[in-house]
Design a protein that fits this description.
Layout: H1 4-8, H2 11-22, H3 33-51, H4 56-69, H5 75-81, H6 85-103, H7 105-117, H8 121-138, H9 142-160, H10 174-191, H11 197-207, H12 215-240, H13 249-262, H14 267-289, H15 293-306, H16 312-316, H17 319-340, H18 343-354, H19 360-373, H20 381-398, H21 403-416, H22 426-431, H23 439-467
Helix pairs in contact: 2-3, 3-4, 3-17, 3-20, 4-17, 6-11, 6-15, 6-17, 7-8, 7-13, 8-10, 8-12, 9-10, 10-12, 10-21, 11-17, 11-20, 11-21, 12-23, 14-15, 18-20, 19-21, 20-21, 21-23
């Protein structure tokens, strides 16, 4: 049973949905009645995803049921919608990520980089940044990377070096490494299509507006601003939020000890490594040989199942994967229907006409910055993407922004805007509560690095995509 507080969360989405439905006689003449009714349901659904009277999976299932009962969808369309390749790719990558953590390969990679580059605190930050980069290619959950692999290692290492919040010595080294992990996790989430589930959500929505982007196109556009960010962020933080301990000669011995305790690579780790390398290779060259990104993720998971690295129980335990498979399928189904019924084309053309004469670059810059700073209002990556991405993309395209650029830049923004608040996403909520970084420092540093990332990805990103011919 829902308590009184939960029932209150239904008021706004229901009120907005009902009002939009009732004003159908006054809708723009260019929009059909079914399109307007679906728009009403879609907006109510998005608001409910923000107010959260129920989890997103339940909310979207209720919405698609209403749309079916009212005759907007046929049941065959709904059933077919759950075969959406983007939604399945997200789920498969989550299952693949379980193999990284279960096999222990992720930790081994981390200890190796710490042992190799960890003689100084700045070098240690760069080493951990490299670990994040490698893991982000195949683990599309920033939560899994931070919670399951990176934070436990940083926490143990910091305490080993005498930096412990409980002893009041967090600024010795741990504060710097923890906040660096937070910001670098944002960068690596942006660098790869498979670095964050939200990336695939965004491009899945872009497909409903006839904008298709491959893993390789994303990688080429993101690689240069990504590398620049990985170089500058640890260094800038080192200057504005310096650790007291500058030299870490004991880190090498600590990591070496951890590697020895792990022993030789297990068969599961070796198989996971081979499958990971194979998946990356296929993501890179797949389009040239007729294998798309979703098919690659299926191949990888099938190999992990056959070899026993993961099992069916591991897959069933990935509740986030099944949740996102459900609600993303529904959101994309409704977006596609709004496109088919002519709503998004009308919306794009209308707003594009209003912006006639304004350079598309300035339109993109404004949309990018507004989209970024609106994340202060959202405690969830997926919620903001579901609520705003389709509309922002439609406005951008209508204003003359090249479709590929509009889709990519706004999708990048859907990771970068995590450098805003202590509630921006799961990693922020975890790391900001560890005691290593004060709340005041968290907000101040997030704002500073947020500006840095905007300059790199918006300014440098536009320049780089021009060089490689994306516009």
């Amino acid at each position: 049973m829902l308590d009184k507080f939960q029932w209150k969360k239904w008021i706004l989405p229901l009120a907005v949905g009902i009002i939009l439905w009732l004003v159908t006689p006054f809708k723009p003449a260019a929009i059909s009645v079914p399109a307007w009714h679906l728009f009403a349901i879609f907006i109510a659904t998005i608001i409910a995803c923000v107010t959260k009277p129920l989890p997103m999976m339940a909310t979207t299932l209720i919405a698609i049921t209403i749309a079916t009962v009212t005759g907007i969808f046929k049941m065959k369309e709904v059933a077919a919608g759950f075969g959406n390749p983007t939604a399945w790719m997200v789920a498969m990558c989550m299952f693949m990520a379980a193999g990284f953590i279960k096999s222990g390969l992720g930790k081994r990679i981390a200890y190796f980089f710490v042992k190799t580059f960890g003689k100084r605190t700045l070098g240690l930050a760069y080493a951990l940044s490299l670990v994040e980069t490698v893991l982000a290619i195949g683990i599309p959950s920033n939560n899994a990377r931070v919670n399951g692999i990176m934070y436990p290692i940083i926490d143990n290492l910091s305490k080993e070096m005498g930096s412990d919040p409980k002893k009041g010595t967090q600024r010795e080294m741990g504060s710097y490494l923890v906040f660096n992990e937070y910001e670098v996790n944002i960068v690596t989430s942006t660098m790869f299509l498979t670095g964050l589930a939200g990336n695939m959500v965004a491009l899945g929505i872009a497909k409903t507006q006839n904008v298709n982007t491959s893993w390789m196109q994303w990688f080429l556009a993101a690689i240069v601003p990504g590398i620049i960010s990985l170089i500058l962020v640890p260094f800038i933080l080192y200057k504005i939020y310096p650790p007291k301990i500058k030299e870490t000669p004991n880190a090498h011995a600590w990591a070496d000890k951890k590697l020895k305790s792990l022993g030789k690579m297990t068969a599961a780790e070796e198989i996971m490594l081979v499958v990971f390398v194979l998946a990356v290779a296929l993501w890179l060259v797949g389009p040239k040989i007729g294998i798309d990104a979703t098919e690659v993720s299926f191949i990888a998971v099938a190999l992990l199942l056959i070899t026993g690295v993961i099992n069916v129980k591991d897959m069933l335990n990935q509740s986030f994967a099944w949740n996102i498979l459900t609600w993303l399928s529904v959101i994309m189904l409704m977006s596609q229907k709004l496109m088919t019924l002519g709503f998004f084309p009308w919306f794009s053309e209308t707003l594009g006409s209003a912006l006639h004469g304004v350079s598309w670059i300035w339109v993109l810059v404004i949309l990018f910055l507004v989209y970024f700073y609106l994340h202060y209002l959202f405690p969830s990556v997926s919620t903001q993407i579901s609520a705003l991405y389709a509309g922002f993309l439609s406005v951008a395209i209508g204003a003359g922004v090249p479709p590929l650029m509009a889709a990519l830049m706004l999708a990048f923004d859907g990771s970068l805007y995590l450098s805003t608040s202590s509630y921006s996403a799961g990693p922020a909520a975890l790391l900001s509560s560890t005691g290593y970084v004060s709340n005041k420092d968290w907000w101040k540093l997030s704002a500073i690095i947020g500006i840095v990332l905007n300059i790199i990805w918006l300014g440098g990103g536009l320049l780089w995509t021009k060089i490689i011919g994306y516009w």
